[in-house]
Amino acid sequence: MSTDILGQFKLISGQITAEAPVNLSNSIFSGTITIGAFSYFNYGCEVGDAEIGRYCSVGQHTLIAPGEHPMQFLSTHPFTSDPSGVSAGMPDNDDYARIACTGISRRNTPKRVGMARIGHDVWIGARAIILRGVTLGHGAVVAAGAVVTKDVEPYRIVGGVPATPIRWRFPSDLRIQILDLEWWNYDLSGLAEPRDYSDVEAMVERLGELKITGALKPLAPRTSVCTA
Ligand SMILES: CC(C)(COP(=O)(O)OP(=O)(O)OC[C@H]1O[C@@H](n2cnc3c(N)ncnc32)[C@H](O)[C@@H]1OP(=O)(O)O)[C@@H](O)C(=O)NCCC(=O)NCCS
Question: What number of helices (H) and strands (E) belong to the chain?
């Protein structure tokens, strides 16, 4: 296991492709997952199929892209859709195998399909749930305990169940400038001291100048792949 991936984690099945560094501390992964540099999970998160950008902060016990069950079959239980028993944690179980479906005449068509897409610089509060198929724009914030059922625009703060807008992080013109700058695609080590990121307008201006002169190089992180 590469040390570019920090923290203990469990990959149940699938593949994690991660830029360095990331911290997956005590979280559980299952599916096809990509994670951008500097993103980190607090403990106890569970992640399904997901694209997660750079510089994301994921609060403890957050669920991203949890599995969906068929609701139009006789039962929502996996015995109606998964003959292997893997998704119920009952592979090679005789009792399961005796009742498991042997064929599926109608397609399982859950409304929520696909991966969760999480942009760069997204902060997800503790115990939030990001459903499948949802896109969180760059710079979005998800409040603690939110259930996100719909796409969230870049730099929106959302909260509640279901999540609705609380406010914007920055005014419109600044949001446009930051999205145009795409600072997450550049190696910030090219920025000479002082590095005071709290003055956003000044930082956007300085980074913009460095980008134009070529002093700011593209970020080119190492990539690790884990499979299970
Ligand atoms: C959303 C959050 C970032 C605060 O954002 P904010 O814009 O400063 O919010 P405010 O405290 O000014 O509250 C604004 C409104 O949002 C509501 N709100 C704040 N947090 C909320 C939450 N978690 N869920 C639902 N609504 C919330 C407030 O009640 C308030 O509603 P009102 O306008 O009707 O009175 C913060 O509440 C939060 O959830 N932080 C996450 C902390 C966390 O989980 N950390 C884990 C470690 S990574």
Answer: 3, 18
Cα–Cα distances (Å) from 58 to 24, 41, 181, in that order, read 10, 5, 24
Give me 219's structure tokens: 């970020």
Q: Is the pTM of this model over 0.85?
A: yes
| CA 53 to centroid of ligand 1, rounded, Å | 23
User: Annotated active-site positions, please?
Assistant: 77
User: Does 41 sit in the ligand 1 pocket, CB within 6 Å?
Assistant: no
**Per-residue pLDDT for the chain (228 aa), expressed as one digit of tens each?**
447 899 999 999 999 999 999 999 889 999 999 999 999 999 999 999 999 999 999 999 999 999 999 899 999 999 999 999 988 999 999 999 999 999 888 887 777 889 999 999 999 999 999 999 999 999 999 999 999 999 999 999 999 999 999 999 999 999 999 999 999 999 999 898 889 999 999 999 999 999 999 999 999 999 999 999
Structure tokens at 61: 């016990």
Distance (Å, rounded) from C-alpha 123 to C-alpha 114?
21
